[in-house]
Specification:
Number of strands: 3
Radius of gyration: 16 Å
Order of helices and strands: HHEHEEH
Helix content: 40-55%
Length: 111
């Protein structure tokens, strides 16, 4: 990818995020953050644009499949909180509250 292609893609993502994406949804519905599954395109778009993200444990799947992307769906999984620029204190508070309410984190058992 050339520098010009990179800058064009970056601008396209930013325009979509502001006009039709993350910022739009947060403003439209007066939300503090979005809650996304840990392995979704929305999370990758948010990360590419520099939106703050925080991931917390959300459970464990004992049996799973290989999904369309070739990723296993078995094992631990998380959820991601994403918000506007400089919303890190709110995201940390939400993530902490989620962890305390759900207790989905399974401590590692060392033998």
């Amino acid at each position: 990818m050339t520098e010009e292609d990179y800058q064009q893609k970056k601008q396209e993502y930013r325009a979509l995020a502001l006009e039709q994406g993350i910022d739009y949804v947060l403003e439209q519905y007066s939300l503090d953050a979005l809650l996304l599954p840990g392995d979704v395109d929305g999370m990758y778009i948010a990360a590419r644009l520099g939106y703050p993200l925080i991931t917390v444990p959300a459970g464990y799947v004992a049996q799973g499949i290989i999904d369309a992307d070739g990723d296993p769906t078995r094992g631990p999984f998380g959820v991601v909180f994403s918000g506007k620029a400089y919303s890190e204190p709110t995201l940390i508070s939400l993530a902490y509250g989620f962890e305390q309410a759900t207790h989905h984190r399974i401590p590692l058992q060392l033998e």
